[in-house]
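DM from R.C. (forwarded with permission)

"hey, sorry to bug you on a friday — could you get me a structure for this? deadline for the figure draft is monday and I only need the backbone to look sensible"
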Amino acid sequence: MTKPMPDKPTVDGLEDVWGPVWEQDGTYRFDRDSATKDAVYSIDTPPPTASGSLHIGHVFSYTHTDLKARYERMRGKHVFYPMGWDDNGLPTERRVQNYYGVRCDPQLPYDPAFVPPFEGGDGKSSKAGDQLPISRRNFIELCERLTVQDEQQFEHLFRTLGLSVDWTQSYRTIDDTSRASAQRAFLRNLERGEAYQADAPTLWDVTFRTAVAQAELEDKEMPGAYHGLAFHRTDGGDDVVIQTTRPELLPACVALVAHPDDERFQDLFGKTVRSPLFDVEVPVLAHHLAQQDKGAGIAMVCTFGDTTDVVWWRELQLPNRAIIGFDGRVRSDEPAWIESARGRELYAEMAGKTVFSAKKVLVDALTESGELVGDVKTINHPVKFFEKGDKPLEIVSTRQWYIVNGARDEQLKETLRKRGEEIAFHPDFMRVRYDNWVGGLSGDWLISRQRFFGVPIPVWYPLDSDGNPVFDQPIVPTEAQLPVDPASEPAPGYTEDQRGVAGGFQGELDVMDTWATSSLTPQLAGKWEADPALYDLVFPYDVRPQAQDIIRTWLFTTALRSQLEADVAPWKHASISGFIVDPDRKKMSKSKGNVVTPLSILEQHGADAVRYWAASSKLGTDAAFDPQNPKQIKVGRRLAIKVLNAAKFVYGFELPSGATSVTEPLDVDVLAELGSVIEQATAAFDGFDHARALEVTERFFWTFCDDYLELVKERAYGTAPDATHETQASAVLALRAAIDALLRLLAPFLPFATEEVWAWTHDTSVHTAAWPTVAELPTRAEPTGLLAAVGQALIGIRGAKTAAKASQKTPVTRAVVAAPADQRALIERAAVDLAAVGRIENLSFTDGEELAVTEIELAEQQA
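My reply, with the result:
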């Protein structure tokens, strides 16, 4: 049923009007019953992390996805557009700790009546010492509670924004279905030999007490200092001086390394030196990764100072003498390789201290012994951090779970490169980030995390007769038993009272990295294995929309899991949005404290205005946002208001009886121009260039309103001189055809304003209407430039009246328009419309070098 046309249309409140209607009518519902695979357009929508609040960057990128979804729906596709919520992971745990003032202690018993000390995260709970220890189960329950609250707020914001998501197709990455899917994929990886466990050097965050994967690293520029340390040659030669920024790792030294081509150290290779203070004998070795121009050209290899140390340790088969514990402090157990009394005494002084305090102890001792050579040189250098951490990473030896990713398998790496070539990146230059990541992988994907709120790794370990776990004989469940939690459920074939006793079992306590679940979003959304018919309809997906900074994590890991499981690329296209930057061109992020929460912006300016701002930026392009002066959002609001008013004006003209054809040159030309706009906007959307589609449509719309409406309104009213039934009908037909097509061209960008207008004359939604085509227009012709030429002449006439300080309604006795011959011929074809809108009694034309009004006489006044 159509909606009555209001006397005074407004964009205010349209979100509250149309959101419930779309939900009730199922406007965006995926109709799987009538869908065939070739008619489906499936979107692997990013599941936002459900911790805290969404920021303006989410509005930006999710709008880009929605534009494409709405376009494809109007093109006749059955659009599968789900929404997921990424619940598990460190951000959720940290938010729960701060919000409720608690921390997890797995040793504590469950308290069914537990009430958190407070709610709201008032800052009192930011330090672990101020947080109340609670059981793992109590902690997870709080995680569940808070993520549900956050998800409800996120959904409200996305609905307000007008995302055409099918909310019946939503999922959570921590619910039973998602846990079962993630565990099923892991078990299949394990069965095929793609998942394995290893005891190896691991990047470790001392704050979160968890392992960190290569994809989660972030370099931060930090102050440091080079210290010259004198190693003593065992053959009696001169001391060998090395430069290091981490003298506190001297007790962990296992070798010195120099480049094999470095002439300075040729006589040292194969010999040994003794470390200062600790007097431990270590070899001097050659390796191509040693940098001749860095420091002294010879490096101290410690277990482990950085990732290069790990490479040297592995490739040179060096011993592991790690001294840093999981808490970031020097371990208290006395190293067996330090035999001197002086060295043992010094190590005891370092034990238990942070790396910074231990460094001071060691530097003071080196200074006293005279083995600190030269001045300490301060520098700034890149230091690796966990992307969510605030302390430098350490490297510790731990037992972890890995999934192969091509780092040590050239055939798999090459296959993943080819999969990247099969995916069309938009913009294409983003492809290099994928290629560089695949080519630069240095280790397999570490997926285990020492956290609590996540998908449990579904394995148990048998305990031998001494009660020691047999790690190389893991016990696994059947797929039918999934999901499982080995920390609280007994292993298959065992009872709970056998947990932790000799001959019994031990449950795996680690959970999977959040990307190990998020990398399966195509499977989670498509209900892999649970609903094979749906999965076959949507997979592989048509598009993965996402941000550029997670190409190395989310995009790559999804491609990897799809390759391992199905031997295909998971999507045909990848659309990559840019970042939002503040007025100083700095990327907006929660960590920098410069993010803008979008709900107030939406409420103040309206969803259509905010969507217009987002749509104005191409994929892969960063956009600046100034909340104090959102100019582009104001332009979008003005456009939405103009759509309402222009449509109301057009619909005010009664269609003359028997009107069937567009005959007048100006009407023919405006529809020809519109046909060109339709073709350009269609090609732009097909090429993932929504900004171009908006640009050409908006430019034509303003020309239509400012020029064409003005030029033909007298004829459309039937009041123009020499107006006939046919000329009036031609104008009204062209006006209605144009506004009908323009509403559909603008519908992806301004869904609320266009739906409001569409409802005045239609009983169905504009968002399920067919995308406009040139073939549907009531006349077919090539654009001649007539509208532009006449519009320029109209501007000249209006300018002449303004210069004469006369009202635009002032009649003109005589006007002469000069123009080059080709333009003059065009304008003369629309002389009647130009004379009518300009109120010109006698309009004539003459040749001129450029289009201009050369003479004008106003009634009762000479200009």
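R.C.: lifesaver. The radius of gyration is 35 Å.
me: no worries. The CA atoms of residues 450 and 510 lie 5 Å apart.
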